[in-house]
Model the fold of this input.
Amino acid sequence: MAGAVSLASVLGLVSPAHAATNLRGQEPFNTDKLIMSLCTGSTARSWWFINVDTGQLTRDTLRGNYQALLPHPKERFQGWCSYPQASSWTWTGNETKVSDTLVNCSWGSQLSQAMQTNGTTTSTTTNSVGGQFGVEWNVIKDVLGLQAAATYSHTWSYADAKGWSTTTTLTVPQRRAGWMTLRPEMRTVRSNPVFHVEKYTYGTTNGGTWSVKTWRDRGYADIKSQGAFYDAKANVVDSSGKPRGQYVARDRAVNSSDRC
Done:
């Protein structure tokens, strides 16, 4: 693709997320929406027109290859996006059933049996706010997965759903039905996208144009907005790929459906 920036080079050259300038509060428009419109998953170079009063974006289909007047509030810029990790934390996911039900119809003794607990690791991606353009979810999943791989690749199941199975001994009291559940430990890795300005052009008072290499000629080229982010969420796993968390034995009284 013309103008593409390889993902490997992006991850090698990107400054830390904190090095980018936070635009929140510095423009008259919603900068969270601006960044989420510019950075939808791709790391390829892109070309844009912007209304600096409203933040409305339109694509520059000629990629800046012409001389045109830029009457206020219309300005033009080009650059590319990166998706550096900003923060990460763990939390407890929803408790889910991970085994068959073992029914003890006996009136006088408990029942113990080896049970298979199994399931599939999960991962999801969410965004903070919608932009003007749709998110390339398959692309952003790959970008976020690669970005976090150096830190979490062996302990996190993001973008790598796998089945798992293990054997657990379950003991069920008399006249009870029992099963195993999992309260999974989950990890969220948050990325605040950064747009890297390569060229910015605006109109001058004499009817001409002026080009610089910073955002709106303010001296900084890397921009973000604190409320613009993607969250990648997935199971925390052990060295064997099994989800970490609290495994809980649950039971209930037998009923007519158990056919005791």
